[in-house]
Amino acid sequence: MTSTPSVDPVLAPLFAPIALGKIEIRNRVVMTGHGTGMAKDYLPTEQHVAYYRERAMGGVGLIGMAFPQIHPTSQDVPGEPRAWLPEIVPGLHEIADAVHEHGARIVMQLGHGGRQGHSTFTERALWGPSNTPCPFNLEMPKEMEPDDIDEIVEAHAVGARHAKLGGMDGVEIHSGYGGYLLASFLSPFSNHRTDDYGGTLENRMRIVTRVVDAVRDEVGPDFLVGMNLQGHDYSPGGLEVSDAQLIAQAVTAGGKVDYLCVKAATYNEAHQNVPDMQPPKRIWEGLAAAVKAVVDVPVIAVGRINDPHDAADILHLGHADMVAMTRQQIADPETVNKMRE
């Protein structure tokens, strides 16, 4: 009779369970949300089910499903679902059931591309906090009016409702990073408003705190609510680490956000927004550590973490509570099982 091999003690911290809100996660390894292009007619497909099932079988603790769009003005890229459609619910249930069958948890992202899109896709004006174009796509957005902001807040709640009806474990408010819609309100790099949604940090955060409130009110106290957060803009006049710390404290102060996933950069620094082989490994680890130092909720570190010993070391140093090894698991869905063995 063969015995089950014990986990390498160096890697053992990766396999400690953790609670996010009221949801127990079996280990500290995350596959963050990323576009898959697998939707058909803007709804989930069997390919989605197979893709996420295989990652759950591979041993990951938490999966992010990206990037369901919350509103028709968002970057309407074919191949990604539309969160505002009630028809999304049955497909979400199939995905969630497949993931749960193999012991993992899954959250659905709530996304809006803001000015970082193309009206070619949406056939509508792009929306942003100010009428300044994305430095990458260069299309002029419409400066959102108060009624537009109200509509976006409500759209997040509708997407969260469909995620809950679809059996997801939670939602992740996506665009607190990367220069997407909510992030573009947070940053003076992209927000030049002079009303209640611009100027001071408190004003720039207003739409974000309203979204958090609306989502939590919609899903209740037991559903998992996380948020992507910009740790640094790396853009002229943008957010710095000290700003990120203040934002993190503000969005978690009311107990309505259960975890933060700390990322960085905007399309102004597109090579770093999704860091490829050029940047060093563990590129945003210091940003996660800075945010973790000032909040009481778990923090996920992201950014070129593809070596098991690096992942474990981040936890050992106390720089984060969980680690994302996303592209590693795209390449090899059995990554976590192999680490355990």
Protein described:
- The chain has 341 residues and is α/β, with parallel strands linked by helices.
- It contains 13 helices and twelve strands.
- The protein has helices at residues 46-57, 88-101, 119-122, 146-165, 181-186, 201-204, 206-219, 241-252, 270-273, 285-292, 308-316, 326-331, 335-340, and strands at residues 18-20, 23-25, 29-31, 62-65, 105-110, 127-128, 142-143, 170-173, 224-230, 259-263, 299-301, 322-324.
- The strands form three sheets. The chain has an eight-stranded parallel beta barrel with strand order 3-4-5-8-9-10-11-12, surrounded by seven helices. Strands 1-2 form a two-stranded antiparallel sheet.
- Strand 4, helix 2 (88-101) and strand 5 form a beta-alpha-beta unit.
- Helix 1 packs parallel to helix 2 and helix 4 runs parallel beside helix 7 (206-219).
- It starts with 17 loop residues before the first strand and ends with a helix.
- 49% of the residues are buried.
What's the gist of this structure?
The chain has 341 residues and is an alpha/beta fold.
What labels describe this entry?
341 residues; alpha/beta; two-stranded antiparallel ribbon; 12 strands; 35% helix; globular
Unreliable segments (pLDDT under 50, ≥5 consecutive)?
Answer: none
Any idea what the radius of gyration is? 19 Å
Helix content: 25-40%
Query: What is the overall silhouette?
Result: globular
Q: What separation lies between the terminal Cα atoms?
A: 17 Å
- Number of discrete helical segments: 13
Order of helices and strands: EEEHEHEHEEHEHHHEHEHHEHEHH
Largest sheet properties: 8 strands, parallel, barrel
> Which structural class do the helices and strands define?
alpha/beta
The largest beta-sheet arranges its strands as 3-4-5-8-9-10-11-12
Q: How much of the residues is beta strand, in percent?
A: 5-15%
Mean pLDDT: 93
Tell me the total number of β-strands.
Answer: 12
